[in-house]
Design brief:
Elements lengths: L4 E6 L2 H12 L4 E2 L4 E5 L4 E6 L3 H4 L13 E5 L3 H8 L6 E7 L4 E7 L5 E7 L2 H6 L3
Parallel strand pairs: 1-4, 5-8
Antiparallel strand pairs: 2-3, 3-4, 6-7, 7-8
Length: about 130
Amino acid sequence: MDFVSIRVITSDVARLVGFYEKATGVQAAWAGEDFAELRTATATLAIAGTRTVPLFAPGSARPADNHSVIIEFLVDDVDRVHENLTGVVADFVQEPTTMPWGNRSLLLRDPDGTLVNFFTPVTPAAIEKFAR
């Protein structure tokens, strides 16, 4: 089995896709006005509109209602990401900070309130763990 994607349901697909394109530098692939994917070498962030929810099960997902998941992106320079997003992000939860497990981490909320972590391994053990 392979873990391939996370899908976020939103009431404003274009706004959320635009945010993630700016934040990641990844261009979204659109499959219609209600669905887009930001694909990386290791996973995909799918963003879908509320009109797609009934295709699975009516009422099974609600936009802007996540309080348990953090979307994480491995980046080359978390401090540069912070600089690039200053003035774009309304809610930085934590400025770049080196965590006890060896990653330098930036935690913020996307426009729907979902927590997003951009991180860069900085200790030898963390660098080895994420060696590409």
